[in-house]
Protein backbone atom coordinates (compact mmCIF):
# COMPACT_ATOMS: atom_id res chain seq x y z
CA UNK A 1 0.00 0.00 0.00
CA UNK A 2 2.70 2.46 1.08
CA UNK A 3 4.86 1.40 -1.84
CA UNK A 4 2.03 1.96 -4.30
CA UNK A 5 1.39 5.44 -2.92
CA UNK A 6 5.11 6.19 -2.97
CA UNK A 7 5.44 5.09 -6.58
CA UNK A 8 2.40 7.08 -7.68
CA UNK A 9 3.70 10.21 -5.99
CA UNK A 10 7.24 9.69 -7.25
CA UNK A 11 6.14 9.17 -10.85
CA UNK A 12 3.76 12.12 -10.61
CA UNK A 13 6.46 14.40 -9.25
CA UNK A 14 8.92 13.41 -11.99
CA UNK A 15 6.30 13.90 -14.73
CA UNK A 16 5.20 17.27 -13.37
CA UNK A 17 8.80 18.40 -12.95
CA UNK A 18 9.54 17.46 -16.57
CA UNK A 19 6.41 19.23 -17.79
CA UNK A 20 7.43 22.28 -15.80
CA UNK A 21 10.75 22.43 -17.64
CA UNK A 22 9.41 21.50 -21.06
CA UNK A 23 6.32 23.69 -21.27
CA UNK A 24 6.71 26.94 -23.22
CA UNK A 25 4.33 29.08 -21.20
CA UNK A 26 5.84 30.42 -17.94
CA UNK A 27 2.48 30.45 -16.12
CA UNK A 28 1.95 26.79 -17.00
CA UNK A 29 5.46 26.13 -15.69
CA UNK A 30 4.53 27.63 -12.34
CA UNK A 31 1.40 25.50 -12.15
CA UNK A 32 3.32 22.32 -12.93
CA UNK A 33 5.92 23.24 -10.33
CA UNK A 34 3.06 23.69 -7.87
CA UNK A 35 1.82 20.18 -8.64
CA UNK A 36 5.38 18.88 -8.16
CA UNK A 37 5.43 20.47 -4.70
CA UNK A 38 2.16 18.73 -3.86
CA UNK A 39 3.60 15.37 -4.86
CA UNK A 40 6.66 16.02 -2.69
CA UNK A 41 4.45 17.07 0.23
CA UNK A 42 2.70 13.74 -0.17
CA UNK A 43 6.07 12.00 0.23
CA UNK A 44 6.63 13.90 3.49
CA UNK A 45 3.27 12.67 4.78
CA UNK A 46 4.31 9.11 3.92
CA UNK A 47 7.45 9.64 6.02
CA UNK A 48 5.30 10.72 9.01
CA UNK A 49 6.49 14.30 8.68
CA UNK A 50 3.10 16.02 8.52
CA UNK A 51 4.49 19.25 9.91
CA UNK A 52 7.12 19.40 7.21
CA UNK A 53 4.51 18.59 4.56
CA UNK A 54 2.21 21.40 5.65
CA UNK A 55 5.02 23.92 6.05
CA UNK A 56 6.29 22.91 2.62
CA UNK A 57 2.84 23.69 1.18
CA UNK A 58 2.47 26.97 3.10
CA UNK A 59 5.92 28.27 2.23
CA UNK A 60 6.49 27.01 -1.31
CA UNK A 61 3.01 26.62 -2.72
CA UNK A 62 1.35 29.32 -0.66
CA UNK A 63 3.99 32.03 -0.71
CA UNK A 64 6.93 31.50 -3.06
CA UNK A 65 4.92 30.27 -6.03
CA UNK A 66 2.29 32.97 -5.54
CA UNK A 67 5.08 35.54 -5.79
CA UNK A 68 6.43 33.85 -8.93
CA UNK A 69 2.99 33.91 -10.48
CA UNK A 70 2.55 37.50 -9.36
CA UNK A 71 5.73 38.61 -11.10
CA UNK A 72 4.92 36.62 -14.24
CA UNK A 73 1.50 38.21 -14.43
CA UNK A 74 2.91 41.69 -13.89
CA UNK A 75 5.37 41.17 -16.73
CA UNK A 76 2.76 39.20 -18.69
CA UNK A 77 5.37 37.26 -20.61
CA UNK A 78 4.32 35.60 -23.80
CA UNK A 79 6.10 34.19 -26.79
CA UNK A 80 6.04 37.30 -28.98
CA UNK A 81 7.05 39.72 -26.23
CA UNK A 82 9.85 37.50 -24.98
CA UNK A 83 13.33 38.76 -25.88
CA UNK A 84 15.15 36.51 -28.34
CA UNK A 85 17.76 34.41 -26.61
CA UNK A 86 21.11 34.47 -28.30
CA UNK A 87 23.27 31.38 -28.57
CA UNK A 88 25.68 32.85 -26.02
CA UNK A 89 22.95 33.11 -23.39
CA UNK A 90 21.86 29.56 -24.08
CA UNK A 91 25.42 28.35 -23.72
CA UNK A 92 25.83 30.23 -20.43
CA UNK A 93 22.57 28.79 -19.10
CA UNK A 94 23.59 25.28 -20.14
CA UNK A 95 26.98 25.60 -18.42
CA UNK A 96 25.46 27.05 -15.24
CA UNK A 97 22.81 24.36 -14.91
CA UNK A 98 25.34 21.68 -15.84
CA UNK A 99 27.56 22.83 -12.97
CA UNK A 100 24.59 22.72 -10.60
CA UNK A 101 23.77 19.20 -11.71
CA UNK A 102 27.41 18.19 -11.21
CA UNK A 103 27.42 19.66 -7.70
CA UNK A 104 24.22 17.85 -6.78
CA UNK A 105 25.41 14.53 -8.16
CA UNK A 106 28.69 15.02 -6.28
CA UNK A 107 26.81 15.77 -3.06
CA UNK A 108 24.64 12.68 -3.46
CA UNK A 109 27.57 10.40 -4.30
CA UNK A 110 28.14 7.89 -1.58
CA UNK A 111 24.63 8.51 -0.27
CA UNK A 112 23.77 4.86 -0.82
CA UNK A 113 26.32 3.76 1.80
CA UNK A 114 24.87 6.02 4.51
CA UNK A 115 22.77 4.22 7.11
CA UNK A 116 19.04 4.64 6.47
CA UNK A 117 17.49 6.41 9.48
CA UNK A 118 14.80 4.50 11.34
CA UNK A 119 11.42 5.83 10.23
CA UNK A 120 9.18 3.35 12.01
CA UNK A 121 8.61 5.80 14.88
CA UNK A 122 5.29 7.51 14.04
CA UNK A 123 6.11 10.49 16.29
CA UNK A 124 9.31 11.44 14.52
CA UNK A 125 7.73 14.28 12.59
CA UNK A 126 5.70 15.82 15.42
CA UNK A 127 6.26 19.50 16.03
CA UNK A 128 7.44 18.86 19.61
CA UNK A 129 10.23 16.52 18.54
CA UNK A 130 11.21 18.67 15.59
CA UNK A 131 11.41 21.78 17.78
CA UNK A 132 13.47 19.98 20.40
CA UNK A 133 15.97 18.75 17.82
CA UNK A 134 16.16 22.17 16.16
CA UNK A 135 16.96 23.91 19.43
CA UNK A 136 19.45 21.34 20.74
CA UNK A 137 21.33 19.25 18.16
CA UNK A 138 20.95 21.59 15.19
CA UNK A 139 20.83 24.96 16.89
CA UNK A 140 23.88 26.39 15.06
CA UNK A 141 22.75 25.55 11.50
CA UNK A 142 19.25 26.69 12.42
CA UNK A 143 20.43 30.09 13.65
CA UNK A 144 22.83 30.48 10.72
CA UNK A 145 19.95 29.85 8.33
CA UNK A 146 17.93 32.47 10.18
CA UNK A 147 20.72 35.05 9.83
CA UNK A 148 21.02 34.16 6.14
CA UNK A 149 17.33 34.91 5.65
CA UNK A 150 17.66 38.19 7.51
CA UNK A 151 20.60 39.20 5.34
CA UNK A 152 18.64 38.31 2.20
CA UNK A 153 15.70 40.38 3.40
CA UNK A 154 17.85 43.40 4.21
CA UNK A 155 19.54 43.04 0.83
CA UNK A 156 16.19 42.93 -0.98
CA UNK A 157 14.97 46.06 0.84
CA UNK A 158 18.21 47.84 -0.01
CA UNK A 159 17.91 46.96 -3.68
CA UNK A 160 14.32 48.17 -3.76
CA UNK A 161 15.26 51.43 -2.01
CA UNK A 162 18.04 52.23 -4.46
CA UNK A 163 15.60 52.18 -7.36
CA UNK A 164 13.60 55.06 -5.90
CA UNK A 165 16.45 57.48 -5.42
CA UNK B 1 -12.37 -7.95 13.29
CA UNK B 2 -9.80 -5.34 12.38
CA UNK B 3 -11.04 -5.25 8.80
CA UNK B 4 -14.61 -4.89 10.06
CA UNK B 5 -13.53 -2.02 12.28
CA UNK B 6 -11.65 -0.30 9.46
CA UNK B 7 -14.59 -0.66 7.12
CA UNK B 8 -16.93 0.76 9.74
CA UNK B 9 -14.56 3.69 10.26
CA UNK B 10 -14.32 4.24 6.52
CA UNK B 11 -18.10 4.29 6.13
CA UNK B 12 -18.48 6.56 9.15
CA UNK B 13 -15.93 9.04 7.84
CA UNK B 14 -17.40 8.94 4.35
CA UNK B 15 -20.84 9.78 5.71
CA UNK B 16 -19.32 12.51 7.84
CA UNK B 17 -17.50 13.98 4.83
CA UNK B 18 -20.68 13.90 2.75
CA UNK B 19 -22.73 15.46 5.55
CA UNK B 20 -20.15 18.17 6.12
CA UNK B 21 -20.02 18.88 2.39
CA UNK B 22 -23.80 19.22 2.17
CA UNK B 23 -23.98 21.35 5.30
CA UNK B 24 -21.21 23.61 3.97
CA UNK B 25 -23.00 24.04 0.65
CA UNK B 26 -26.31 24.61 2.42
CA UNK B 27 -24.86 27.21 4.77
CA UNK B 28 -23.08 28.96 1.89
CA UNK B 29 -26.31 28.98 -0.15
CA UNK B 30 -28.33 30.43 2.67
CA UNK B 31 -25.56 32.88 3.52
CA UNK B 32 -26.27 34.51 0.15
CA UNK B 33 -29.89 34.96 1.18
CA UNK B 34 -28.87 36.12 4.65
CA UNK B 35 -26.52 38.64 3.10
CA UNK B 36 -29.30 40.15 1.03
CA UNK B 37 -31.68 40.15 3.98
CA UNK B 38 -29.11 41.80 6.25
CA UNK B 39 -28.34 44.37 3.56
CA UNK B 40 -32.05 45.02 3.15
CA UNK B 41 -32.57 45.45 6.88
CA UNK B 42 -29.67 47.89 7.12
CA UNK B 43 -30.94 49.92 4.18
CA UNK B 44 -34.54 49.81 5.39
CA UNK B 45 -35.74 47.60 2.54
CA UNK B 46 -37.58 44.29 2.47
CA UNK B 47 -35.08 42.22 0.49
CA UNK B 48 -35.95 39.18 -1.64
CA UNK B 49 -39.47 37.99 -0.74
CA UNK B 50 -40.96 36.66 -3.99
CA UNK B 51 -39.72 33.07 -3.72
CA UNK B 52 -41.57 31.31 -0.92
CA UNK B 53 -42.23 32.80 2.51
CA UNK B 54 -39.54 35.40 3.38
CA UNK B 55 -37.74 34.49 0.16
CA UNK B 56 -36.69 31.19 1.64
CA UNK B 57 -36.35 29.53 -1.78
CA UNK B 58 -34.21 32.31 -3.22
CA UNK B 59 -30.89 30.36 -3.09
CA UNK B 60 -32.48 27.51 -5.06
CA UNK B 61 -33.79 29.94 -7.65
CA UNK B 62 -30.34 31.52 -7.86
CA UNK B 63 -28.71 28.13 -8.29
CA UNK B 64 -31.10 27.13 -11.07
CA UNK B 65 -30.51 30.48 -12.75
CA UNK B 66 -26.74 29.97 -12.65
CA UNK B 67 -27.09 26.60 -14.37
CA UNK B 68 -29.52 27.88 -16.98
CA UNK B 69 -27.45 30.88 -18.07
CA UNK B 70 -25.32 30.66 -21.18
CA UNK B 71 -21.81 29.48 -20.40
CA UNK B 72 -19.73 31.95 -22.36
CA UNK B 73 -15.99 31.66 -22.79
CA UNK B 74 -13.95 34.49 -24.31
CA UNK B 75 -12.11 33.54 -27.48
CA UNK B 76 -8.72 34.66 -26.25
CA UNK B 77 -8.99 32.92 -22.89
CA UNK B 78 -6.46 30.30 -21.84
CA UNK B 79 -8.89 27.42 -22.25
CA UNK B 80 -7.85 24.84 -19.65
CA UNK B 81 -6.79 27.20 -16.93
CA UNK B 82 -9.95 29.22 -17.47
CA UNK B 83 -12.04 26.11 -16.80
CA UNK B 84 -9.81 24.83 -14.01
CA UNK B 85 -9.70 28.01 -11.92
CA UNK B 86 -13.25 28.06 -10.48
CA UNK B 87 -13.03 24.36 -9.71
CA UNK B 88 -9.70 24.79 -7.93
CA UNK B 89 -11.06 27.71 -5.94
CA UNK B 90 -14.11 25.71 -4.88
CA UNK B 91 -12.05 22.61 -4.05
CA UNK B 92 -9.66 24.51 -1.81
CA UNK B 93 -12.57 26.25 -0.08
CA UNK B 94 -14.26 22.93 0.69
CA UNK B 95 -11.08 21.22 1.92
CA UNK B 96 -10.52 23.42 4.96
CA UNK B 97 -13.59 22.27 6.85
CA UNK B 98 -12.08 18.81 7.39
CA UNK B 99 -10.10 19.64 10.52
CA UNK B 100 -12.68 21.79 12.32
CA UNK B 101 -14.18 20.14 15.41
CA UNK B 102 -17.90 20.76 15.00
CA UNK B 103 -18.76 19.13 18.33
CA UNK B 104 -17.52 16.55 20.79
CA UNK B 105 -19.03 13.20 19.99
CA UNK B 106 -22.33 12.07 18.61
CA UNK B 107 -23.65 8.70 19.76
CA UNK B 108 -25.48 7.00 16.92
CA UNK B 109 -26.45 3.29 16.94
CA UNK B 110 -24.31 2.81 20.06
CA UNK B 111 -21.20 4.10 18.32
CA UNK B 112 -19.43 7.26 19.45
CA UNK B 113 -18.77 9.37 16.37
CA UNK B 114 -16.32 12.26 16.46
CA UNK B 115 -17.83 15.34 14.89
CA UNK B 116 -14.63 16.05 13.02
CA UNK B 117 -13.41 14.48 9.81
CA UNK B 118 -9.70 14.43 10.68
CA UNK B 119 -8.08 15.31 14.00
CA UNK B 120 -4.70 16.33 12.61
CA UNK B 121 -2.07 17.24 15.19
CA UNK B 122 -1.24 20.21 12.95
CA UNK B 123 -4.84 21.22 12.27
CA UNK B 124 -4.28 24.93 12.42
CA UNK B 125 -1.38 24.77 9.97
CA UNK B 126 -3.52 22.70 7.62
CA UNK B 127 -6.05 25.53 7.60
CA UNK B 128 -3.35 28.13 7.00
CA UNK B 129 -1.96 25.99 4.18
CA UNK B 130 -5.25 25.68 2.36
CA UNK B 131 -6.08 29.33 2.92
CA UNK B 132 -2.81 30.26 1.26
CA UNK B 133 -3.74 28.08 -1.72
CA UNK B 134 -7.07 29.84 -2.15
CA UNK B 135 -5.39 32.67 -4.00
CA UNK B 136 -4.53 30.40 -6.97
CA UNK B 137 -8.13 30.15 -8.11
CA UNK B 138 -8.36 33.94 -8.18
CA UNK B 139 -4.96 34.45 -9.82
CA UNK B 140 -5.25 31.76 -12.44
CA UNK B 141 -8.85 32.69 -13.21
CA UNK B 142 -7.99 36.35 -13.56
CA UNK B 143 -4.98 35.66 -15.73
CA UNK B 144 -6.61 33.03 -17.94
CA UNK B 145 -9.52 35.34 -18.76
CA UNK B 146 -7.08 37.47 -20.76
CA UNK B 147 -8.80 40.66 -19.68
CA UNK B 148 -6.95 43.66 -18.27
CA UNK B 149 -9.41 44.26 -15.47
CA UNK B 150 -9.40 40.62 -14.46
CA UNK B 151 -5.60 40.65 -14.39
CA UNK B 152 -5.48 43.80 -12.27
CA UNK B 153 -7.90 42.24 -9.88
CA UNK B 154 -5.94 38.99 -9.71
CA UNK B 155 -2.75 40.92 -8.95
CA UNK B 156 -4.48 42.98 -6.28
CA UNK B 157 -5.99 39.90 -4.71
CA UNK B 158 -2.69 38.05 -4.57
CA UNK B 159 -0.81 41.00 -3.08
CA UNK B 160 -3.54 41.44 -0.50
CA UNK B 161 -3.65 37.78 0.46
CA UNK B 162 0.13 37.45 0.82
CA UNK B 163 0.25 40.59 2.98
CA UNK B 164 -2.54 39.57 5.32
CA UNK B 165 -1.53 35.92 5.58
CA UNK B 166 1.62 37.04 7.37
CA UNK B 167 -0.20 38.92 10.11
CA UNK B 168 -2.74 36.12 10.34
CA UNK B 169 -0.04 33.53 10.88
CA UNK B 170 1.69 35.69 13.48
CA UNK B 171 -1.60 36.18 15.37
CA UNK B 172 -2.13 32.43 15.36
CA UNK B 173 1.41 31.72 16.58
CA UNK B 174 0.57 33.63 19.78
CA UNK B 175 -2.45 31.35 20.33
CA UNK B 176 -0.32 28.28 19.67
CA UNK B 177 2.29 29.49 22.17
CA UNK B 178 -0.41 30.07 24.72
CA UNK B 179 -2.32 26.81 24.26
CA UNK B 180 0.73 24.69 23.51
CA UNK B 181 -1.00 22.77 20.72
CA UNK B 182 -1.57 22.96 16.98
CA UNK B 183 -4.58 20.64 17.08
CA UNK B 184 -7.92 22.41 16.84
CA UNK B 185 -9.66 19.71 18.90
CA UNK B 186 -7.23 20.11 21.78
CA UNK B 187 -7.68 23.86 21.55
CA UNK B 188 -11.44 23.48 21.81
CA UNK B 189 -11.12 21.06 24.73
CA UNK B 190 -8.93 23.50 26.67
CA UNK B 191 -11.58 26.20 26.47
CA UNK B 192 -14.25 24.42 28.55
CA UNK B 193 -16.93 26.60 30.11
CA UNK B 194 -16.07 30.25 29.67
CA UNK B 195 -12.29 29.75 29.68
CA UNK B 196 -12.07 31.09 26.12
CA UNK B 197 -8.87 32.22 24.43
CA UNK B 198 -10.36 35.62 23.65
CA UNK B 199 -9.82 36.68 27.29
CA UNK B 200 -6.10 36.01 26.95
CA UNK B 201 -5.65 37.04 23.32
CA UNK B 202 -7.86 40.08 22.67
CA UNK B 203 -5.31 41.81 20.45
CA UNK B 204 -4.55 38.57 18.64
CA UNK B 205 -8.24 38.09 17.99
CA UNK B 206 -8.60 41.59 16.57
CA UNK B 207 -5.68 41.05 14.21
CA UNK B 208 -6.95 37.64 13.18
CA UNK B 209 -10.44 38.97 12.58
CA UNK B 210 -9.24 41.80 10.32
CA UNK B 211 -7.01 39.36 8.43
CA UNK B 212 -9.88 36.90 8.05
CA UNK B 213 -11.98 39.67 6.49
CA UNK B 214 -9.14 40.43 4.08
CA UNK B 215 -8.48 36.77 3.26
CA UNK B 216 -12.15 36.22 2.44
CA UNK B 217 -12.08 39.25 0.12
CA UNK B 218 -14.90 40.74 2.14
CA UNK B 219 -15.67 44.42 2.43
CA UNK B 220 -14.00 46.68 3.54
CA UNK B 221 -11.15 44.74 1.90
CA UNK B 222 -12.89 43.63 -1.30
CA UNK B 223 -10.44 45.46 -3.54
CA UNK B 224 -10.24 42.41 -5.78
CA UNK B 225 -13.81 42.89 -6.94
CA UNK B 226 -14.07 46.61 -6.61
CA UNK B 227 -16.87 47.23 -9.12
CA UNK B 228 -16.26 50.95 -9.50
CA UNK B 229 -12.68 50.40 -10.65
CA UNK B 230 -12.52 46.89 -12.05
CA UNK B 231 -15.94 46.13 -13.58
CA UNK B 232 -16.54 42.83 -11.79
CA UNK B 233 -13.07 41.91 -10.58
CA UNK B 234 -11.23 38.71 -11.39
CA UNK B 235 -14.44 36.99 -12.53
CA UNK B 236 -15.44 39.67 -15.04
CA UNK B 237 -15.18 37.20 -17.93
CA UNK B 238 -16.91 34.35 -16.17
CA UNK B 239 -20.55 33.46 -16.59
CA UNK B 240 -23.02 30.75 -15.68
CA UNK B 241 -22.03 28.25 -12.98
CA UNK B 242 -18.32 29.06 -13.30
CA UNK B 243 -19.13 32.50 -11.95
CA UNK B 244 -21.43 30.78 -9.47
CA UNK B 245 -18.51 28.68 -8.22
CA UNK B 246 -16.41 31.76 -7.55
CA UNK B 247 -19.19 33.57 -5.71
CA UNK B 248 -20.22 30.45 -3.84
CA UNK B 249 -16.69 29.53 -2.78
CA UNK B 250 -16.33 32.99 -1.24
CA UNK B 251 -19.29 32.27 0.98
CA UNK B 252 -17.81 28.90 1.90
CA UNK B 253 -14.56 30.66 2.79
CA UNK B 254 -16.50 33.02 5.00
CA UNK B 255 -18.28 30.14 6.73
CA UNK B 256 -14.99 28.34 7.41
CA UNK B 257 -13.24 31.53 8.56
CA UNK B 258 -16.06 32.15 11.05
CA UNK B 259 -15.87 28.55 12.26
CA UNK B 260 -12.12 28.92 12.80
CA UNK B 261 -12.65 32.15 14.74
CA UNK B 262 -15.23 30.37 16.89
CA UNK B 263 -12.91 27.42 17.59
CA UNK B 264 -9.67 29.31 18.13
CA UNK B 265 -10.88 32.29 20.13
CA UNK B 266 -14.44 31.65 21.30
CA UNK B 267 -14.37 28.20 22.83
CA UNK B 268 -15.68 26.19 19.86
CA UNK B 269 -18.46 23.94 21.10
CA UNK B 270 -18.17 25.12 24.73
CA UNK B 271 -20.64 27.42 26.36
CA UNK B 272 -21.05 27.97 30.13
CA UNK B 273 -24.03 26.02 31.43
CA UNK B 274 -24.44 23.99 28.26
CA UNK B 275 -22.61 20.68 28.34
CA UNK B 276 -21.57 19.83 24.75
CA UNK B 277 -22.45 16.17 25.36
CA UNK B 278 -26.15 16.90 25.98
CA UNK B 279 -28.76 15.55 23.55
CA UNK B 280 -26.33 12.80 22.62
CA UNK B 281 -23.68 15.30 21.60
CA UNK B 282 -25.94 17.55 19.54
CA UNK B 283 -25.63 20.42 22.00
CA UNK B 284 -21.98 21.03 21.12
CA UNK B 285 -22.86 21.12 17.43
CA UNK B 286 -25.67 23.61 18.05
CA UNK B 287 -23.43 25.89 20.14
CA UNK B 288 -20.65 25.73 17.57
CA UNK B 289 -22.97 26.53 14.66
CA UNK B 290 -24.63 29.34 16.63
CA UNK B 291 -21.25 30.97 17.22
CA UNK B 292 -20.29 30.52 13.57
CA UNK B 293 -23.54 32.06 12.36
CA UNK B 294 -23.06 34.96 14.73
CA UNK B 295 -19.69 35.73 13.18
CA UNK B 296 -21.11 35.37 9.67
CA UNK B 297 -23.64 38.00 10.71
CA UNK B 298 -20.82 40.24 12.00
CA UNK B 299 -19.03 39.85 8.65
CA UNK B 300 -22.17 40.97 6.83
CA UNK B 301 -22.78 43.76 9.29
CA UNK B 302 -19.29 45.10 8.57
CA UNK B 303 -19.78 44.78 4.83
CA UNK B 304 -22.90 46.94 4.84
CA UNK B 305 -21.52 49.47 7.33
CA UNK B 306 -17.95 50.29 6.35
CA UNK B 307 -16.83 51.81 3.05
CA UNK B 308 -14.10 50.15 1.02
CA UNK B 309 -10.46 50.91 1.82
CA UNK B 310 -8.21 52.47 -0.76
CA UNK B 311 -5.53 50.12 -2.03
CA UNK B 312 -2.57 51.94 -0.47
CA UNK B 313 -4.48 52.20 2.82
CA UNK B 314 -4.98 48.45 2.70
CA UNK B 315 -1.26 47.81 2.27
CA UNK B 316 -0.40 50.34 4.99
CA UNK B 317 -2.77 48.67 7.41
CA UNK B 318 -1.44 45.23 6.58
CA UNK B 319 2.28 45.86 6.69
CA UNK B 320 2.71 48.87 8.95
CA UNK B 321 0.01 48.25 11.54
CA UNK B 322 -1.06 44.63 11.70
CA UNK B 323 2.34 42.96 11.26
CA UNK B 324 4.11 45.01 14.00
CA UNK B 325 1.09 44.62 16.29
CA UNK B 326 1.04 40.87 15.72
CA UNK B 327 4.79 40.69 16.44
CA UNK B 328 4.33 42.68 19.65
CA UNK B 329 1.44 40.42 20.62
CA UNK B 330 3.61 37.39 20.00
CA UNK B 331 6.47 38.69 22.14
CA UNK B 332 4.07 39.70 24.94
CA UNK B 333 2.41 36.29 24.88
CA UNK B 334 5.78 34.59 24.97
CA UNK B 335 6.77 36.71 27.98
CA UNK B 336 3.56 35.93 29.83
CA UNK B 337 3.78 32.21 29.15
CA UNK B 338 7.40 32.26 30.36
CA UNK B 339 6.56 34.20 33.55
CA UNK B 340 3.24 32.78 34.65
CA UNK B 341 2.98 29.50 32.77
CA UNK B 342 -0.34 28.96 31.03
Question: Secondary-structure blueprint of this entry?
Answer:
The complex is a heterodimer of chains A (165) and B (342).
Chain A (H helix, E strand, L loop, with lengths): L1 H21 L3 H21 L3 H26 L11 H22 L18 H9 L3 H26 L1
Helix pairs in contact in A: 1-2, 2-3
Chain B lengths: L1 H41 L15 H11 L10 H17 L9 E4 L2 E4 L8 H22 L3 H32 L4 H7 L11 H14 L11 H4 L9 H26 L16 H22 L7 H30 L2
Helix pairs in contact in B: 1-9, 1-10, 2-9, 3-4, 3-9, 4-5, 5-7, 5-11, 7-9, 7-11, 9-10
Radius of gyration of chain A: 20 Å
| Share of helix of chain B, binned | 55-70%
The residue-averaged pLDDT of chain A reads 83
List the helices and strands of chain A in order. HHHHHH
* Structural class based on helices, strands and sheet pairing of chain A: mainly alpha
Which radius of gyration of chain B do the C-alpha atoms yield?
A: 21 Å
Specify the overall morphology of chain B: globular
- Tell me the overall shape of chain A: globular
Low-confidence stretches of chain B: none
Largest interface: A-B, 22 and 27 residues
SS strand fraction of chain B: under 5%
Q: How many β-strands of chain A, per DSSP?
A: 0
Number of strands of chain B: 2
Q: Would you list the SSEs of chain B in sequence order as H and E? A: HHHEEHHHHHHHH
Distance between the termini of chain B: 43 Å
Percentage of β-strand residues of chain A: under 5%
* Number of helical regions of chain B: 11
Profile the largest sheet of chain A: none
Labels describing this entry:
A: 165 residues, mainly alpha, globular, B: 342 residues, two-stranded antiparallel sheet, 11 helices, 66% helix
Amino acid sequence: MTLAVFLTLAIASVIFALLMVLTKNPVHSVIFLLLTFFAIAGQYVLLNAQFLAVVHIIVYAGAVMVLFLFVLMLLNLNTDAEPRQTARWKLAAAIASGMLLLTMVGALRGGAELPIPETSDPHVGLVKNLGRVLFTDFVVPFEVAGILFLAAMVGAVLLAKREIR
Amino acid sequence: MLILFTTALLIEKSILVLALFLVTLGVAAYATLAERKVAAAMQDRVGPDRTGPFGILQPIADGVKFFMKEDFMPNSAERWLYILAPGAFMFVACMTSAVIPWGTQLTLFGRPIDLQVADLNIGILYILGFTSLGVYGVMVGGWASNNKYSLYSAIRASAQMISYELAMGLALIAVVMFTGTLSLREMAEQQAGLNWNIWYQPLGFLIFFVCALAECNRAPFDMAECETELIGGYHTEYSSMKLGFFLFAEYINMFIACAVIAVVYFGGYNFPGLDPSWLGGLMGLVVMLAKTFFFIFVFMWIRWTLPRFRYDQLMQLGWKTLVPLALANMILTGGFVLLFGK
